[in-house]
Amino acid sequence: MLPWAEMLRSALAVGIGPKDFWQLSLTEWRWLAARRAGLKAERLQELMAAFPDEEKAQ
């Protein structure tokens, strides 16, 4: 099942209105669905703390 509410929120966040939302191409639908797959800021911070960049010895 597609996450309609999340996709509509994602569309609105990038400036796509409800009328245009329902006229999107398959490629555009996939892009909206994939937007929710990215890392959340909190999770990114956790990963950065767990795996800090190592400074190169000079």
Fold and architecture overview:
The mean pLDDT is 78. The protein has 58 residues and is mostly helical. It contains four helices and no strands. It is 59% helix and 0% strand. The chain has one domain. Helix 1 packs across helix 3. The protein is elongated and about 55 Å long.
Number of helices, counting only DSSP H or I runs of 4 residues or more: 4
- The proportion of residues forming helix, as a percent range, comes to 55-70%
**What is the percentage of strand-forming residues?**
under 5%
Distance linking N and C termini = 54 Å
Topology:
Elements: H1 4-13, H2 18-21, H3 26-35, H4 41-50
Helix pairs in contact: 1-3
Q: In short, what is this structure?
A:
This protein has 58 residues and is mostly helical. It has helices spanning 4-13, 18-21, 26-35, 41-50. The chain contains four helices and no strands.
Task: Kindly list the characteristics that best describe this protein.
single chain; 58 residues; mainly alpha
